[in-house]
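Lab notes, practical 5.
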Amino acid sequence: MTKMKGFAIRGLVVAVATVLGWLGFTYGFSDQNIADEVQRNPVLALIGARVIDGTGTAPIDDAILLIEDGRIAAIGPVGSLTIPDSATLIDISDKTIIPGLINAHGHVTVDDNTQLPIREHMEQRLEIYADYGVTAVVSLGSRGELDELEGIKIRDERRVETPTGARFFTGGQNARGETEAEARASVAHLADIGVDIIKYHINGGPNDMSSPIYGALVDEAKKHGLLTAVHIYNLSDAKGAIEKGTNIIAHSVRDQNVDIELIDEMIRFDVGYIPTLTRDLSVFIYENEPDFFEDPFFLRGLDVYGTELELLREPAQQEAIRNNPRAQEIKIALDQALRNLKLLVDSGVTIAMGSDSGSANDWGRWQGYFEHVEMEMMVEAGMTEMQVLVAATGNAARIMNLDEIGTLQPGKWADFLVLNADPIADIRNTREIDSVWIAGNRRALVR
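Output from the prediction step:
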């Protein structure tokens, strides 16, 4: 590999291209070549792409992205940076770089359809997330103690080693209790085993934890320095959770329009909001065979999706959904969720992307694919493409206190996607994945 010796890049991209050509630089590295270069030389310079950094600021055209030891060393337009003499140059002109996508509400757990051991199943799911450009996922709910503990082991391993799949953060099993003491004990146990966040449920039913009980739960989480996220459906429950100090509303409000009281409290306390639109879509969309079952981008995941796909194609299963009153009600609820998302984003509430994908035994919540559908639905709700990209990167990291990822800024991990088209022009261009990079390593896409 030809290396530039002490050369300060100045001028236009055409000048860069001329110099690279003079040096014998070639475009089109294989995954293995990139891996070999990183092994020999931890300094990379990606040159010529448009960079969207995840903060919401204007894209940088004709940019240089400098990576050292897996982290971003510098970023700026051509002419503003000096490339170290040790750097390996990679020409990615006419591409777009965005931060790796973060699913702020997913599930990496074990369902009844798998024949794989727990560890292998969970790692398989982290791999498919990464194949679709989701480089980090926050799992808000383990199914049981076995995958809860295995997930914490996987999380810890990925903190000290270069991840091969998506980065993983976990809330373990949901906190709960029938008394304030039980709720506190539930949180204390989760804190002891090392979860990243506490998740709890208010379902809008008579068996919910009362306000004093979930208030004690939230208070205990704060004592342990842990964020709290809540599963809600109703406006009143969202308000009650925020009153007790909950940090994140992990689903849409779906019973009525959000009001100024909720909006003011969310802004006052900097409460994040995760719409999980595809969660509701998945409840009714399989009453017939959806068009995306023939989408080549969806079918990239067929080796993982195949079992669920065949189950959802069964006529009896589709008829059961058509005849399920709850499934039909969710169609109306989703329309309400879309309206509320627009009201909240226009009011300045922090929105983060999350799909609720991978929930155990809730068929058809496709890890990897549904994050792209989620972003497309967010645009349909009235968000701009830039707002959605920030929600899926910088905002998702911010509400989860993931300080080392989410935006392309010096010092953060070099987790990013190289796209063949600009997602600011059309959010569906997030599907145009040229390559996925995690900690400065270009991963081999196997699907």
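Observations recorded by the TA: The longest strand covers residues 43-51. Residues 297 and 310 are 18 Å apart (CA to CA).
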